[in-house]
Amino acid sequence: MATVTASNHHAIDDTDYEAQYAQLKEMLGSVGEKVWIAKTFSYDNGKKLFIGNNFTGNFNLTILDIREVYIGDNVMIGPGTLITTVGPPSHLWAEENTSVSQSLSISVTMYGSAVMLLSCRE
């Protein structure tokens, strides 16, 4: 489903901000006012992504929302950014293939290419 709704978002005309906003409201958990996300936006679930007011997500934004992602008001995320709620196994040599995950909150602007990963602790 995430692939279909993201494709719908990508297909909307670049100048049709109302249709883009309506599509974001349909595919994400919640969306504040004045939210814009460029085409080539990718996500896992969508419904676990909560965005505040005055948000800009630039091109090639990927958010792996296996767990909840909360983005506050007045945040801008630059192009080529990866945000993930899933990390590697807690012990890289574990016999079981278990990953760690946790929710995250973002309240500051990240501009330029960035990668936001969970920490790996032993």
Q: How far apart are the first and last residues' alpha carbons, in Å?
A: 35 Å
Taken in chain order, the helices and strands follow as HHEEEEEEEEEEE
| Number of discrete helical segments | 2
> What is the annotated CATH architecture?
3 Solenoid
Write down the oligomeric state. single chain
Would you report the number of β strands?
11
Any idea what the radius of gyration is? Answer: 15 Å
How is the largest sheet built, in terms of strand order? 1-4-7-10
- CATH H-tier superfamily: Hexapeptide repeat proteins
Averaging pLDDT over every residue, what do you get?
Answer: 82
Major sheet, described briefly? 4 strands, parallel
Helix content: 10-25%
What is the number of independent domains? 1
- What is the 3D form? globular
Strand content: 15-25%
Which structural class do the helices and strands define? alpha/beta
